[in-house]
Design brief:
Spore Coat Polysaccharide Biosynthesis Protein SpsA, Chain A; glycosyltransferase; 6-stranded mixed sheet; alpha/beta; transferase; two-stranded antiparallel ribbon; 33% helix; globular
Amino acid sequence: MLPSTAGTRSPLFALAATAAFVLVFIFGFLAWQSPAKLSFPTTGSTHVEMTINNAAPTSINEIIRQLFAPLKIGPAQPEFAIEDGTKFTLPENPLYTKKLGKEVLVLDLDTRPLASTEDYLKGEYDWRKIGHVSGGVFNHYTYALIHGYDYKLVHAKNFEDRNPTWIKPSALANQLKQGNYKFIVFLDADATFRFLHLPIEWMLNYWKINEKHAITMAKDPWDAKEPQYNSDRFNRTLTNTGFMVVQDTPATQPLLKAWHECPDDTRYQNCSQWKKPKFHEQSAFGDFVRYDFEENIKELECAEANGFPGVEISHCEGKFIRHYWFDKTLIKKDFRENMMQAITLPIQRLFAENTGGVIEEQKENKIVG
C-alpha cells in the first residue's frame, strides 16, 4: 500500500527525486550503450563501478541500496504481507531486533565458472543469455548488497573421488572460522531469495532459530505413494542442502567436521557409499550426521524454504526461499521481477504524488486560444 499522496511536496519528495536521479542515470547509461552489448570495466574485487567519459564513478552497490530502500522490511517488523494478500506474523519476543550487517555472510560455492564469464572478459554482457548459475549468483549478491551483509563466491577445487557437492562442509567450516561470522546463509546456484527486500533476520525470527541451532535446512518433498524417494535409511525425510543457515555455535565445527569426514568411514561406517551416488552429501547428512546432532539442527517444512510454484507434493512452493530443481530458467524470472518492482516503485510514486508537476489537469477538452 502506498502512503498518502496529499500535497505535492510530501516527505517522499526527496526519496522520489533521488530515485528519479538514479533511474535517469541507469536508463541514460543503457541508452548511451549499444542495446545488445554493454561493456563494463574488469575489476578484481566485488565492488563494481560504472564510468562514463571519465566522470566520477557511481557505485552499483549504492544504486541497488537506493532502489530497495523504500521496500525493505525491518528485522522485527511484526507482520509481512505479500501481493496475494497473505500475511505472515512474527512470534512474540523476536530474538533478532537489530540488523546483523557484516555478521552475516551470504555464500555461493561452485567448482564451475560462471556461464557469463567468457563474454564478460571480452567486454560484452547480455542479460538474455546468462546461464542459470549467474542468475542465482546475481540474486544472492544483490540480496547481500541490499541488507549490508558480506558476500563471497568461493570457487573450490573439484574432488577426485567424490561428487563436487561435497565441497559444502569444509567451505562452510573455513568461512565461519576465517570471517568470524555469526551466520552463513548458503544457497545453491539454483536457489533464490523470493523476496529480496525481506532480511534474513526477519526469517530467523519467523522460524524461531535460536542460539543452539548450528544448522537450519528445509525438508525435501515427500510423497506417501513413493516413500522410498527423499528418505534416509530410517524412512525419515531428507533435508535439502540447497539452502542452509549455519550459525557459529559450540556444536557447529564438530558437526561440519563429522559431515566432511563422513565418506572416509572414520566416524560412520558405510558413509562412503554416498561419495558419488545421489544425493551425495545430502544423503550422508540425513543417514548419519543429523542423528548425532539432533538438538543442534532446525528442520523447516519443505513449503518454507524449498521448491517453487506448482510443486504440489508437501506444498513445496518456496514460501521464502525457492529452489528450482528442474526448470532453472525461472531463476532469472524471479530476479527480474524483484528488480522491476524496485525500479518502478519510485516511478509510480512520482505520478502518485505529481512530483514536479508531471500531471496536468485538462479541465476542458478543447483547443485553447
